[in-house]
Design brief:
22-stranded antiparallel β-barrel; about 10% helix; about 700 residues; five-stranded mixed β-sheet; mainly beta; 7 helices
C-alpha cells in the first residue's frame, strides 16, 4: 500500500509539473518577492545569489504555527533530532547541534546546544518568519555555521495604532493548554510590542500508554521598542523564558524494541538491571531559564549605512534526576576507576541522598555577549560591498554538584567582506573571512583559527526560472563537551570521553539549484555534495564503566550527498492547491561507515483547500526504511502519517475571531522516528493528537 501511495504521488508530481509549463510563465508567485534578512544585501528570494528558504508563520495553519517543530518540517532538507515532542534540534542535510547557527531577536542563540537532549527553547508565538540557509555560511556567521543557518525573525512593529491578539489552544493527547497575549502599538517615530505565553502540557500517549517524562511547561515574555527616523533606526528586543521539560528514559520498552530491530551497541544485557535500580528515583527533567536582550542600531547615510547590534544572553540549565553518578570529576583522565574510591563514593552518596533530593544535580550558567558590526558601502548598478566583524565573549560556570563540561571561557573574533556583482548574464557573490577562537579552562588554553571563502553564481533562465551554483567553505571549532566530557551521561545511556586534542572541523560544499516558476506554480531542484575534514563524532568502544559502554569523541574525514525536489501549484480550481517535496541524504566516513542521525528518504505531500472564510489542509508524510545505520543506531521501518488541519474566520464585535483545529497522526500510527532518541529506549512516537484553538484580534 505504501509503495502504491508513493508511486501515485510521484506520478502526480511529474504530471502536474509537465502541465505547469504550459501556463503563463511571466509572473512569479508571491513568495519569490519576499525580502531575505539573513543575508546582508536585502535581496528578495528570487534575486538572492544564495539559496534561502523562507517560511512565514502566517502561511501555516493556526495550530501548527505555534510549534517550531511542525514549522521547520515544512522546509525540504530540514529534519528534527528530538527527545520527545518538546526537545527538538534542527538538522540541515544531516548537520545538527553545534553545526547549525540559530539567530533569534537579532542575535545568535547560545543555550548550551552541545547536548543531544538540549532543544531550541524558543517560543513560536511572536515569530514572523523563519529563514533557512542549507549549507556552510561561516563567511557571515563564523564558527558553527558549517551546516547552515536558521534565522528567526520576531514580529514586526506597526507604525500607528493599537492591536491586541489573544489566543488559547488545547491538545487532547497530553491535556495541554497554551495561552497567548500580544499587544502592539505605535505613534510617530516610536513603536512597541509586548507579548506573553503560558504552556502547560502533560505526558503524551502512544500505543503503549502514557510515556512518563514527556511533559512540558513554559512561561515566555517578549518585549520590543522600536524607533524609526530618516537617518536612524533602532530596535530593542527583550525575551525571558522559563521552561520545565521532562526527560524520558523508557524502562520497560527496551527489550521489545531490540527484539524487533536488532541489538543496539548503545545497550547491553545489564541495561534492564540498571533501569530497575532507577525505578524509585525522582523524575528526570530540565529546568531552563533563558534571558536575551539585544539592541540593533542602523545609521543611514546618504548612500551607505552602518549597522551595530549588541546582544547579551544568560542561560541557566538545571537537571534533576538520573544524574546521581554523572560528572567527570570522579574519574581520572583515562576513565579508569579505583574500586575502593567507588565503594566509598557510593556509600557517601547513599547517606546523603535524602539531603540532596529535590536539588539540581547539574546547574550551569552560560553568559554570552555578542557584538555584530557591518558597514554597507554605497550601492551602484553593478556592485554592492559589505565589511563586518563579529565578536563573542562567553563564560560557562558550574553551580551544581556535578559537571558535564568544566568552567570555561570562549572568545571569538571574526572579520569578513562580502560583495555582490550584478553582471549581464551572471550575478556573482564573493566573500572572505578570518576567524579566531580562544577556549580557556582549568589546565587548558587553546587557540583555533580559520580562513574561509564563498563564491556564488546566479543566472536567469529566461523569464520563468533561474539557476544557482554555490561553493562555500565552513569551519567549526570543537565544543566543550567534545573536548572535556568524562563521565556517565544518563540521558544518552553511555559513558562519554572527550579528547582535548581535537582540531577544527572544516568543510567544502557545492550546491546546484534550479528553480522554475509561473503565475500558478513553482518547481525547485537542489543537489549538494559536502566534504568534511576532521568530522567529530562519538564512537562506541569495547570498554564499559559501571555497565555503561564507553563512547569516545573521534575525528575522521566524511562526506554527505543528497538533494531535494519540491513542487507547489495552484490548480485551475481557485480553492485547491497542492505541494510536494522529496528529500534524500547519504552520509559516510572515508572508511565507508555510515554517519549517525541521517534522515531516511522523505516524501511530503499536502492538499490545500481555501474558501471565503475557511481553509483546510490534508497532508501526508512518508519516511522510508533506514537500514544503512551507524554503529550505535537501530534500524527503523518505513511509515506513513496523515495530518489534517483547518481554520474558520468569524466576525466578533467587528473584529476577527479565528477558530483553528488539527488532527496529527490521524490514524494513530505506531512508529519509530529514526531521528528520535526515544527509539533507543523502545518508545514509540506520539499517537493521535486533536488540537483546537481560538485566536482573537482587535
Amino acid at each position: 500500500m505504501k509503495k502504491i501511495y508513493l508511486s501515485a504521488i510521484l506520478a502526480l508530481f511529474i504530471l502536474q509539473y509537465n502541465n505547469s509549463q504550459t501556463a503563463n510563465d511571466t509572473i512569479a508567485i508571491q513568495d519569490l518577492d519576499e525580502v531575505i534578512v539573513s543575508t546582508p544585501f536585502k535581496e528578495t528570494v528570487k534575486n538572492n545569489v544564495i539559496k534561502v528558504s523562507k517560511l512565514r508563520l502566517s502561511d501555516l495553519s493556526m495550530i501548527n504555527a505555534q510549534n517550531f517543530r511542525f514549522s521547520l518540517l515544512k522546509v525540504p532538507g530540514l529534519s528534527v533530532v528530538s527527545t520527545g515532542p518538546y526537545i527538538s534540534k534542527p538538522s540541515i542535510r544531516g548537520m545538527y547541534g553545534n553545526r547549525v547557527v540559530t539567530y533569534v531577536n537579532n542575535m545568535r542563540l547560545e543555550n548550551q546546544q552541545w547536548g543531544d537532549d538540549h532543544g531550541l527553547e524558543i517560543d513560536a508565538f511572536g515569530t514572523e518568519s523563519i529563514e533557512v540557509i542549507k549549507g556552510p555560511l561561516s563567511v557571515l556567521y563564523g564558527s558553527d555555521a558549517i551546516g547552515g543557518v536558521i534565522y528567526i525573525s520576531p514580529d514586526s512593529y506597526i507604525n500607528d495604532g493599537f492591536e491586541v491578539e489573544l489566543g488559547s489552544y488545547y491538545n487532547s493527547n497530553y491535556s495541554g493548554f497554551t495561552n497567548n497575549l500580544g499587544i502592539k502599538g505605535g505613534s510617530g517615530k516610536f513603536s512597541y510590542i509586548i507579548q506573553g505565553s503560558l504552556v502547560d502540557n502533560g505526558d503524551f500517549e502512544n500505543a503503549d500508554g502514557v510515556v512518563e517524562g514527556t511533559f512540558f511547561e513554559s512561561t515566555d515574555i517578549k518585549a520590543g521598542l522600536g524607533f524609526n527616523s530618516e537617518k536612524f533606526t533602532s530596535d530593542l528586543r527583550f525575551n525571558h523564558s522559563s521552561i520545565k521539560v521532562g526527560v524520558p528514559h523508557g524502562d520497560e520498552h527496551d527489550e521489545d524494541h531490540h527484539d524487533e530491530h536488532g541489538d543496539d551497541d548503545d545497550h547491553d544485557d545489564d541495561h534492564d538491571d540498571e533501569h530497575d535500580d532507577h525505578e524509585d528515583e525522582e523524575k528526570s527533567y530540565q529546568d531552563l531559564t533563558n534571558t536575551m536582550i539585544s539592541l540593533k542600531n542602523t545609521v543611514l547615510f546618504e548612500r551607505s549605512q552602518l549597522e551595530i547590534t549588541i546582544g547579551y544572553s544568560e542561560n541557566n540549565r538545571k537537571e534533576f534526576g538520573h544524574h546521581d553518578e554523572e560528572g567527570h570529576d570522579d574519574h581520572d583522565e583515562d576513565g579508569d576507576h579505583d574500586d575502593d574510591h567507588d565503594d566509598d563514593h557510593d556509600d557517601d552518596h547513599d547517606d546523603d541522598h535524602d539531603d540532596h533530593e529535590g536539588e539540581a544535580h547539574i546547574d550551569m550558567d552560560l553568559s554570552t555577549t555578542t557584538v555584530d558590526l557591518k558597514y554597507i558601502f554605497p550601492k551602484n548598478n553593478r556592485s554592492e560591498f559589505i565589511i563586518g566583524t563579529n565578536i563573542v565573549n562567553q563564560e560557562n560556570t558550574n553551580l551544581g554538584e556535578e559537571e558535564l563540561v568544566p568552567n570555561a571561557t570562549k572568545n571569538d573574533l571574526g572579520i569578513y567582506g562580502l560583495s555582490h556583482i550584478h553582471g549581464e548574464v551572471w550575478d556573482v557573490m564573493l566573500g572572505f573571512r578570518a576567524d579566531f577562537r580562544k577556549i580557556k579552562a582549568s589546565g587548558f588554553n587553546e587557540n583555533y583559527s580559520s580562513l574561509n571563502a564563498t563564491m556564488g553564481l546566479k543566472t536567469d533562465l529566461g523569464n520563468s526560472g533561474l539557476m544557482r551554483i554555490n561553493l562555500s567553505r565552513g569551519f567549526r571549532a570543537p565544543n566543550l563537551s567534545e573536548l572535556f566530557s568524562e563521565g556517565i551521561h544518563h540521558a544518552t545511556g553511555r559513558y562519554e570521553q572527550g579528547d582535548k586534542n581535537l582540531s577544527n572541523e572544516s568543510n567544502l560544499q557545492v550546491d546546484f539549484s534550479i528553480m522554475t516558476f509561473s503565475e500558478k506554480s513553482k518547481f525547485e531542484f537542489d543537489l549538494f555534495y559536502n566534504k568534511i575534514n576532521d568530522y567529530i563524532y562519538v564512537n562506541p568502544t569495547d570498554s564499559y564503566v559501571d555497565n555503561y559502554q564507553v563512547y569516545k569523541y573521534i575525528q575522521e574525514d566524511a562526506s554527505l550527498f543528497g538533494g531535494e525536489i519540491s513542487y507547489k501549484r495552484e490548480t485551475p480550481l481557485e480553492w485547491l492547491s497542492h505541494e510536494t517535496s522529496i528529500e534524500f541524504i547519504s552520509g559516510k566516513t572515508t572508511e565507508r561507515e555510515n554517519l549517525p542521525l541521517i534522515a531516511p528518504i522523505t516524501l511530503n505531500h499536502s492538499f490545500g483547500f481555501d474558501f471565503n472564510n475557511s481553509s483546510l489542509e490534508i497532508g501526508a508524510i512518508f519516511k522510508g526504511k533506514k537500514q544503512n545505520i551507524s554503529q550505535f543506531e537501530t534500524k527503523t521501518d518505513s511509515y506513513l502519517l496523515v495530518n489534517v488541519s483547518g481554520s474558520h474566520d468569524l466576525n466578533l464585535l467587528n473584529n476577527n475571531l479565528t477558530l483553528g483545529w488539527s488532527i496529527n497522526n490521524l490514524f494513530d500510527k505506531e512508529y519509530y522516528d529514526h531521528l528520535s532518541r526515544l527509539k533507543n529506549f523502545g518508545i514509540h512516537e506520539m499517537g493521535r493528537n486533536i488540537s483546537v484553538g481560538l485566536n482573537y484580534n482587535f
